[in-house]
Amino acid sequence: MTLFRIISLSAFLICCVSLAYHLIRLFKLGLPKDYSHKIGDLKSAVSYSFIGGMNPLKKESAYLHFPTYTAGILYHIGTFVSAVLFFFFLFDISLTSSLQLVPGCILIASSISGIGIFLKRVFLKKLRFLSNPDDYISNLLVTMFQVLTFFMLFTETVSPFYFILTGLLFLYLPLGKLKHSIYFFAARYHLGYFYGWRGVWPAKKL
Amino acid sequence: MENSKDKKNKALKILREPKDSKLVTHLNSCVHCGLCAESCMYYLVTKDEKFIPTKKVDLISSIYQRYCTFTGKYIPLLTKARELDDNMTEEMVDQLFGACTLCGRCTKHCSIGVDIAYIVKVGREMLSEMGYVPATLQSTVNAALQTGNNMAIPTEELTDTLSWLEEELQDEMNDPEASIPLNVPNTNILYTLNPREPKFFPLSISAMAKIFYAAKESWTLSTQMYDVTNYAFFSANTDEAIVIAQRLYDEMFSLNAKRCVLAECGHGSRAFRWEAPNYLQKSFSFDVLTSVELMEEYISSGRIKLDKGLNKEVMTLHDPCNLVRNGGIIEQQRYIIKNAVSNFVEMTPHGVDNFCCGGGGGQLAMSEYNERRMKIAEIKAEQIRKTGAKIVVTPCHNCVDQLMQIDAKFKLGVKIKTLAEVVADAIILEK
């Protein structure tokens, strides 16, 4: 294993420990104790929160902003693909050329989406007002991760840059908004729990 | 007397010592995508970025970052972590009290699932700890604490009004036994009122009394504690909310009623049904239900009979946020309307996606923000106008008040009614 790979792996392990800290903290804090009489079905509501409630037709944040929503979805798919490929590159597992094509296409689309989202944040007054440096850094790091993952599919020459970047990304991830990779799931759970307890999700049929 | 540093520390304690994982989760989840903007009436009407829901969350999360996270303590610029200083407090009061109805529409539509309304409520709690509740809202809470009802109605005035309404009921029913029972122990139902009813809208009490009469219900009102509202829920002062909730809880035992039926009041229903058990830290041993559920129960069980031909005018429904999106009462009012009204048109959007009337979150009690409140109301006015309805029905007295002001300002020419009034108009009394 090269030095760059070791640096990247170390950063990855530090990232895992940090995220585990966040996760354990959430579990230790536990769910809110609710003394009111539950009228809904928590299991169905939490499932709905993760599945039906994520349906783009159910959320204004999706159907009123379809291009941005689509870019966001592509961007996240690209991130997952890049995360999986990271282990292939880390342990030097080679992909056949036919296996390079699909992730390659996904990464082109996701990288373009990432750049689009970044430019939107830079140029839209509304988004600039809402943004802090962490928003730009997070966006840039993840987009570069996807771009370099794409190149890594086809050439080894970017390898040092790739592993330095992934090292930086993993070290940065628990510090800023990228830790929503953990908190997103907790947020959806809490939302399903809240609406489920009160019978909002799924609504009572008469 | 507490100094400002002590008060600030008490406010920060809310963030430093979370009771459970909910607060930490929602404070760490927002990605500043800004896609919640169009779900908020304040932003939609004003286009002012400071009203975007994520910005409201950001006020609290930036304080959280500053005082409770490594990044915020040592690299505050990275996340724009901020001190809880005078400027911050001023912004919080303006945006969390003055520009949010706690309707929760942004929460439902957030791309991540951040409970934005909950975070705003936490921000209000912090402000309450520091003594920054707007004076008008606090005076409403004080009236409830000092007199037992938020409009400071003297008991004699209440009993006079109820006595007059009882006579009217007897005339209408042509039955001298028809009554509005007061302080009767061991009934099936203890019914509550929004103090706006005896003060301004007594006909909604008559309507509910007529429904109880038709259902042959065993019920009572309490002159000691009848106020369904709890404005301390809006001011987010838990100690005061506990005092108010405890009174109604105690009255249930004092009169030994089986079920507590909450009048048509969105926040009152939410405050007593969903929040009061948590304020008081106990599960209630009696049933708590809204009058909407009770009317649905009467109709579906055949205890009251309706003739929808008696309500012929085009009617639309305004869904109160606290009852619907935050209380799960979604289909019951539609079932009632289907049985009581012959010409019904839904608003677009409606149900869990409905827009607030603009008077929620204590806005109607905070005259400081009247101009802003009526400005954002144009969304509701347009929603109503597009239905072509002549009557707007809503199971919430707070909404009734705001809708009446909307009707006057935007010249809609509609009548505003409670659900009980619509049902009472359609009741067929068995001889």
Give a short summary of the structure.
The complex is a heterodimer of chains A (206) and B (431). By secondary structure, chain A is an all-alpha fold.
Explain what the structure shows:
Chain A has 206 residues and is mainly alpha-helical. Chain A contains nine helices and no strands. In chain B, helix 1 runs antiparallel to helix 9 and helix 18 (332-340) packs parallel to helix 22 (419-426). Chain B starts with a helix and ends with a strand. In chain B, the strands form three sheets. In chain B, strands 2-1-3-4 form a four-stranded parallel beta sheet. Chain B has a four-stranded parallel beta sheet with strand order 7-6-8-9, sandwiched between helices. With 431 residues, chain B is an alpha/beta fold. Chain B has helices spanning 4-16, 21-27, 41-46, 53-68, 70-74, 76-79, 86-97, 105-109, 116-129, 135-147, 155-173, 196-199, 202-214, 232-235, 238-254, 266-280, 291-301, 332-340, 370-376, 378-387, 397-410, 419-426, and strands at residues 189-191, 219-221, 259-262, 287-290, 305-306, 315-317, 344-345, 391-393, 415-417, 427-428. Chain B has 22 helices and ten strands. The chains are: A mainly alpha (206), B alpha/beta (431).
Roughly what fraction of the amino acids of chain B lie in strands? 5-15%
How many beta-strand segments of chain A? 0
The major sheet of chain A is characterized as: none
Going by helix content, strand content and strand pairing, the class of chain A is mainly alpha
Return the string of H and E elements of chain A: HHHHHHHHH
Please count the helical segments of chain A: 9
| Low-confidence blocks of residues of chain A | none
Query: What oligomeric assembly is this protein in?
Result: heterodimer
